């Protein structure tokens, strides 16, 4: 079952000549409802300025339009903030460029209802209330001066300053929840008791909004009166990854295929990859072109997490139409009778395969490869996706001269991921992940640093780490210990990338990329070795205690010898 809501809104000028409030609502359907949700917004233009109405309407219309154009992989607060900061800058610039619109600004209260959660974005003194089980809760805080004579003066608003700070909050939905977005022309004359009464007196959302606005005007409200009411009737049964698991469960995992066998019109030419969980086949498509068919090992046919992970891999890969990633080949629902997906085929080999046949990568080749990986990662990270498994096996060098990042099966995005313990290959996993920390863009950059280090030296900065091992991290070994021809500037970059402390690493892909592109023209300062006291305090004190015991024993021996 999908999310089911009803909503209605009313906006009246009240006793004023001009209505400077504006509200709106978008209720998408299908996949957009699951990934972006329902968006409701209410704005109250700053009174006294001719641009108040324009500010309110432009903000709401801009938010309703542009929120749905943001990547599906962004978190809701991230998407809202990027849109609202752009709207704020536009309003502030317009206000400064036109004297008649000077001071144009607006409050904004926005609500996103997606899946089984709600998200609030708020600035100004309009409000959002939640009525649940007979109890009224205010979800927002007014941004006004804390003085009896100035409580109508805003301290924050959209368009008021060049940059604004927006409050964000979130919570879990319950069936029967009633949300009310109201301007100060409604909540101020009514008070909490009357707001609560109007919210529950009628099950129809539009009627409830009418009741709120009518009651506010009847109570002597002297401002524009606007209300938007949203009622939650049904919640989706499952989260995003559970939905994927259900979809995957409806498709059987194909048996292991041999060259010459067919599957849904594709002819298998050869097995490209055989791992613990997945199989990749090179196939001939009906139109005569080549493709790569990815599916699961037949032994995992009943593993719902692995089945869902395969579809999550496909869902994320569809979001990237870039040469840094293999492209997903669209398939009609009726064309696919088994659990798999199809990708574009590219001649070439993975970096691991190049190393396995003894290829020697020069410093220039390693730097070029690193630059390409970081450009691809920058795209992932801008979309709030963490790959979580960067390593030589997942970097493909095509005969067309392009590098492609493979395997998004364990990637982490705003919609969640299919958890399978700590994902990745132990020797490439950042230290904080072994301690239970969350994967971040920096952990991807750590893995990239380890990959480049291994590419040049065939070694690992902290030694090879076996599965289920709990490593202790000291300082990384300088790569010049294994390969003296690595220049100092590159060694500094690699050591910074694989630093044990995330605070000492590159913060973003772009920063790492810039360091590689500048090279010896702008070398980094070589990081100092961490003192033993900071690296391993317990070991330091054990050493001091051991030395103290030895000295005491020697003194005792000298005394007794006399």
Plain-language structure description:
The protein has 562 residues and is an alpha+beta fold. The chain folds into 3 domains: 234 residues, Phosphatase 2c, domain 1 (4-Layer Sandwich); 104 residues, Phosphorylase Kinase, domain 1 (2-Layer Sandwich); 183 residues, Transferase(Phosphotransferase), domain 1. The chain is built from 15 helices and 18 strands. A 5-stranded antiparallel sheet has the order 1-10-9-6-7, with helices on one face. Helix 2 runs antiparallel to helix 3, helix 4 crosses helix 5 and helix 6 crosses helix 7. The protein is globular and about 95 Å long. The model has no long low-confidence stretch (mean pLDDT 89).
Helix % is 25-40%
User: What general outline do the C-alpha atoms trace?
Assistant: globular
Q: Determine the structural class based on helices, strands and strand pairing.
A: alpha+beta
* Strand order in the sheet with the most strands: 1-10-9-6-7
Poorly predicted regions: none
Q: State the fourth-level CATH superfamily of the largest domain.
A: PPM-type phosphatase domain
When the domains are counted, the total is 3
The CATH architecture of the largest domain would be 4-Layer Sandwich
Strand content: 15-25%
What is the CATH class designation of the largest domain? Alpha Beta
Major sheet summary line = 5 strands, antiparallel
Mean pLDDT: 89
- Overall radius of gyration: 30 Å
List the total number of helices. 15
Number of strands: 18
Fold-level CATH name of the largest domain: Phosphatase 2c, domain 1
């Amino acid at each position: 079952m999908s999310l089911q809501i009803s909503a209605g809104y009313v906006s009246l000028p009240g006793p004023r000549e001009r209505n400077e409030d504006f509200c709106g609502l978008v209720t998408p359907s299908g996949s957009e409802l699951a990934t972006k949700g329902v968006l409701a917004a209410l704005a109250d233009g700053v009174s006294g300025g001719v641009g108040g109405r324009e500010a309110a309407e432009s903000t709401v219309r801009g938010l309703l339009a542009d929120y749905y154009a943001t990547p599906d992989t962004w978190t809701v607060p991230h998407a809202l903030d990027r849109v609202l900061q752009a709207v704020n800058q536009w309003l502030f610039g317009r206000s400064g460029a036109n004297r008649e619109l000077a001071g144009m600004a607006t409050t904004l209260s926005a609500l996103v209802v997606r899946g089984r959660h709600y998200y609030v974005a708020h600035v100004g003194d309009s409000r959002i209330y939640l009525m649940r089980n007979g109890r009224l809760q205010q979800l927002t805080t007014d941004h006004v001066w804390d003085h009896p004579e100035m409580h109508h003066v805003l301290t924050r608003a959209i368009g008021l300053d060049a940059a604004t700070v927006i409050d964000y909050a979130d919570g879990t939905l319950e069936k029967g929840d009633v949300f009310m977005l109201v301007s100060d022309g409604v909540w101020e004359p009514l008070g909490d008791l009357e707001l609560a009464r109007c919210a529950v007196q009628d099950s129809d959302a539009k009627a409830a909004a009418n009741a709120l606005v009518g009651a506010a005007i009847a109570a002597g409200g002297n401002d524009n009166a606007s209300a938007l009411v949203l009622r939650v009737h049904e919640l989706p049964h499952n989260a995003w990854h559970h939905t994927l698991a259900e979809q995957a469960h409806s498709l059987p995992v194909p048996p292991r295929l041999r060259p010459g066998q067919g599957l849904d019109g594709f002819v298998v030419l050869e097995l490209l990859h055989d791992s613990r969980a997945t199989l990749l086949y090179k196939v001939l498509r009906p139109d005569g072109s080549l493709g790569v068919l990815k599916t699961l090992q037949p032994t995992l046919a009943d593993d719902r997490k692995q089945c869902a992970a395969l579809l999550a891999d496909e869902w994320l890969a569809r979001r990237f139409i870039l040469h840094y990633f293999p492209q997903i080949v669209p398939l009609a629902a009726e064309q696919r009778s088994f659990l798999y997906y199809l990708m574009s085929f590219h001649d070439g080999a993975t970096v691991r395969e190049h190393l396995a046949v003894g290829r020697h990568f020069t410093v220039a080749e390693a730097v070029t490869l690193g630059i390409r990986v970081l450009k691809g990662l920058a795209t992932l990270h801008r979309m709030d996706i963490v790959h979580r498994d960067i390593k030589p096996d997942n970097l493909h060098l095509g005969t067309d001269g392009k590098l492609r990042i493979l395997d998004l099966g364990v990637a982490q995005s705003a919609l969640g991921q299919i958890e399978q313990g700590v994902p990745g290959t132990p020797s490439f996993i950042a230290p904080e992940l072994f301690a239970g920390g969350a994967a971040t863009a920096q952990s991807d950059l750590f893995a990239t640093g380890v990959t480049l280090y291994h590419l040049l030296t065939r070694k690992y900065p902290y030694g090879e780490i076996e599965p289920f091992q709990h490593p202790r991290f000291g300082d990384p070994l300088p790569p010049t210990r294994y390969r003296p021809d690595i220049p100092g500037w590159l060694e500094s970059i690699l050591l910074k990338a694989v630093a044990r402390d995330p605070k000492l690493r590159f913060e973003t892909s772009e920063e790492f990329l810039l360091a590689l592109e500048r090279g010896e023209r702008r070398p980094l300062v070589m990081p100092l070795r961490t003192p033993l006291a900071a690296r391993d305090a317990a070991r330091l004190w054990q050493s001091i205690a051991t030395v103290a015991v030895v000295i005491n024993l020697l003194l005792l021996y000298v005394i007794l010898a006399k």
